[in-house]
Amino acid sequence: QLAPANRAPSALHDMVAGMADGEPAWIQSIDHLGATLLAGRGTGVSIVLATLFALVALGIMAPTRLRRAALVLAMVLAALIWIFGQDFGALATGRATDPNSGPLLILVAWCYWPRSRVRSTEDGGTMTGRLATADPRRHKQAKEITRVLRLVGTAGAGLLALSAITSCGTAQSTAGATSAATSATSSTSAPPSSRSTPSSMARAAAMIHISSFKYAVPASVAPGATVSVMNMDGENHTVTADSGNAFDVMATAGTTVTFTAPKKPGTYPFHCTYHSNMHGVLVVK
After folding, report:
1. From the CA atom positions of the chain, what is the Rg in Å?
2. Neighbouring residues of 53: CB distance < 8 A, sequence distance ≥ 6
3. I need a surface site. Which of 26, 142, 274, 279 has the fewest CB within 10 A?
């Protein structure tokens, strides 16, 4: 959370504002509200979130009462992240493959919720601590249920990570297959009257791939062409012109977005606003 790209004053604002693309109007309104609240406050909010995350981590090892408070805080943070930081897992866009990590984080926190050891006696009183183990069978069952729930939560976290890795690999394979198919098609001889013009070839290749924090940019694109940006990384990236307002688009992790290339031919250097080491050049001709 305190990485330079995340704690920049406008980083959180830009991330939330860029997620509205493709979402229904009511989710877009949530994104706009969140972006407004975060405008210019990225550094402060990042420090606060990092502090709260640290308190949650330490609270897990605290006594029962403090542990429950930490787990409630964890659930609240997970819900806020799922709403404002993940747009409910982008389920409303039709492009999501899972609900993202928000619900899973809430499930994991619930699995670590300390179970009460208080038990009623026949005369209406209560007994606590080791006296509650008077019924060994019931106590053993409770321990087994707790253990299974924790295993389910941990396994769910692992499956979510595996799903993200698999989705990334699938996207890369799809991109490779598409590239191979395009090469095979272009190598096939066509009648002189149906040969592609340079302009149409530039339009067909108007795709920027982002992988391993690097841009793969076509040799050139036609003026005014629709350029697709496929983000195959696990983090959000932008394609932002270095100067002017020629283009500026954000691609969230695992998604594809589009923008219109400038109508004026020329060379347009661009960068990622979240990662200062990412640069590319778009040639329009």
Report:
1. 26
2. 1, 77
3. 26
Q: In this model, does residue 192 exceed pLDDT 60?
A: no
Determine the angle formed by the axes of helices 136-187 and 101-111, rounding to 10 degrees.
160
Partner residues linked to 207 by β-bridges: 228
Q: Does residue 99 surpass a pLDDT of 50? A: yes
Please say whether the beta carbons of 90 and 23 come within 8 A: yes
The DSSP element (H or E) to which 206 belongs, if any, is none
pLDDT, tens digit, 9 for 90 and up, residues 112-144: 888 765 454 444 444 444 444 455 666 666 677
pLDDT in tens, 13-53: 777 877 777 788 898 889 888 888 888 787 888 889 889 99
What residues does 99 pair with on adjacent strands?
none
pTM of the model: 0.46
Handedness of CA 169, 175, 177, 183 (dihedral sign): negative
* Helical ranges in 98-239 per DSSP H: 101-111, 136-187, 198-204
Q: Which residue has the tokens 């959180």?
A: 12
DSSP string, 14-66: HHHHHTTTT--HHHHHHHHHHHHHHTT-HHHHHHHHHHHHHHHHHHTTS-HHH
